[in-house]
């Protein structure tokens, strides 16, 4: 029996030594030290031994167990260390390798112009208001002094969804919505950027979906000269200090009087293709808020007056960047968009 136990020890130690990974080592542990292992099997023959030999064999069996178990522990520590080293070697980062280029997106030119205009008005104390693109007939037209059947509704050909719902044709409904929120108490000083939709035929200067920025100021003693001063600052900041503006009489049902606003062209009146040789470029519609519009939104038109304007950032971006076709903004050609990249 002694011989058997010693052979088992030699055999087990050899196997432990040759174990290549933690799984193999664990299998060896289970095989030799487990309850059904060979050492236990050998000890089953103890009954045949003399009483003097039994404790000796018991002690020897314990020694064999201890030797195998200690060899397993040592081997386990060794294999664990090896596993860590292999893992570290696998995960080594070569900090000297050149970095991989990350492709960066860029702001769309329209977004840039809109953000520039927003910043400009925020600096003048305006806040930004928003409204829904699917609008009710009431806010898009009626609250703006355009009752059903009014001929001026034809100025903006609309996409109707139901009798009472349509895609907003301008950002002016946000004026009416915002004024209602102020519950007849001025001052109101907002701009509203957003998408609008019209059944216009697409061409170089018309798109069926485009952007507008509405402006609205309502307070006591607001006059046409406030409107003119504000738009002058806007034009000079956006297009350059040497630019002038001029107001031409116009008509909008929601403003009285109404004007179209032109900015002097960069050709300084010499005449060029962009200004169609007139020296002036039309950039927005504006006027003094019609008393009916103030009253419908709950403002006392004897106490309060206001001005409003609505511009098309698409056309402004075309002027600013010299773009000859509005459709470039919506056809997602990266060759076009990359020209406005701040980083490549
Ligand atoms: C309006 O939409 C008025 N709501 C503006 C306004 C607001 C006037 C407040 C008075 C007071 P108009 O239809 O002119 O006005 O459009 C305003 C601007 O939108 C135009 O100057 C133009 O720059 C732009 N625009 C109009 N139709 C199109 C189109 N199909 N494609 C691209 N831009 C357009």
UniProtKB/TrEMBL annotation:
The subunit structure is: Tetramer of two alpha and two beta subunits.
Q: Where is the signal peptide?
A: none
Give the family this protein belongs to, as stated in its UniProt record: Belongs to the class-II aminoacyl-tRNA synthetase family. Phe-tRNA synthetase alpha subunit type 1 subfamily.
Species whose genome carries this gene: Bacillus thermotolerans (Quasibacillus thermotolerans)
> Taking every annotated instance into account, which residue ranges of this chain make up the domain Aminoacyl-transfer RNA synthetases class-II family profile?
111-339
**What is the protein named?**
Phenylalanine--tRNA ligase alpha subunit
Per the record, its GO cellular-component terms are: cytoplasm
Q: Which GO terms describe its biological process?
A: phenylalanyl-tRNA aminoacylation
Q: Where in the cell is it found?
A: Cytoplasm
A GO molecular function for this record? ATP binding
- Any Pfam family: Phe_tRNA-synt_N
Please list the cofactors this protein needs: Mg(2+)
What is the protein's major site of localization? cytoplasm
Give EC number(s), comma-separated. 6.1.1.20
Residues bound to Mg(2+) are 256
Can you quote the record's cofactor note? Binds 2 magnesium ions per tetramer.
- Supply the gene name: pheS
Q: What class of enzyme is it?
A: ligase
Q: What is catalysed by this protein? A: tRNA(Phe) + L-phenylalanine + ATP = L-phenylalanyl-tRNA(Phe) + AMP + diphosphate + H(+)
What are the UniProt keywords, alphabetically? Aminoacyl-tRNA synthetase, ATP-binding, Cytoplasm, Ligase, Magnesium, Metal-binding, Nucleotide-binding, Protein biosynthesis
Which PROSITE patterns does the UniProt record give? AA_TRNA_LIGASE_II
What's the domain of life for this entry? Bacteria
């Amino acid at each position: 029996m002694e011989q058997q136990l010693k052979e088992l020890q030699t055999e087990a130690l050899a196997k432990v030594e040759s174990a290549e990974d933690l799984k193999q080592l664990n299998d060896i542990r289970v095989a030799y030290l487990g309850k059904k292992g060979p050492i236990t099997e050998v000890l089953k023959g103890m009954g045949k031994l003399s009483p003097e030999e039994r404790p000796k064999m018991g002690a020897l069996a314990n020694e064999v167990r201890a030797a195998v178990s200690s060899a397993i522990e040592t081997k386990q520590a060794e294999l664990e260390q090896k596993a860590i080293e292999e893992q570290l070697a696998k995960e080594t980062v070569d900090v000297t390798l050149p970095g991989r280029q990350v492709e960066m997106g860029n702001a769309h030119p329209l977004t840039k112009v809109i953000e520039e205009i927003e910043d400009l008005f925020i600096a003048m104390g305006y806040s930004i208001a928003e409204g829904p693109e699917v609008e009710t007939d009431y806010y898009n037209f009626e609250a703006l002094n355009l009752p059903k059947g009014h001929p001026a509704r034809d100025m903006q050909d609309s996409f109707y969804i139901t009798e009472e719902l349509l895609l907003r044709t301008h950002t002016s409904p946000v004026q009416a919505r915002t004024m209602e929120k102020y519950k007849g108490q001025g001052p109101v000083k907002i701009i509203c950027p957003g998408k609008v939709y019209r059944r216009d035929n697409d061409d170089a200067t018309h798109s069926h979906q485009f952007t507008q920025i509405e402006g609205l100021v309502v307070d006591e003693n607001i006059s046409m000269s406030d409107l003119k001063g504000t738009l002058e600052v806007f034009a000079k900041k956006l297009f350059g200090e040497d630019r002038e503006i001029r107001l031409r009489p116009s008509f909008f049902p929601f403003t009285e009087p109404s004007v179209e606003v032109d900015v002097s062209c960069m050709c300084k009146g010499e005449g060029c293709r962009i200004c169609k040789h007139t020296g002036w470029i039309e950039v927005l519609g504006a006027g003094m808020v019609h008393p009916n519009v103030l009253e419908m939104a709950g403002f006392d038109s004897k106490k309060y007056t206001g001005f409003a304007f609505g511009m098309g950032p698409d056309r402004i971006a075309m002027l600013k960047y010299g773009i000859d076709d509005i459709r470039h903004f919506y056809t997602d050609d990266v060759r076009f968009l990359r020209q406005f990249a701040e980083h490549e």
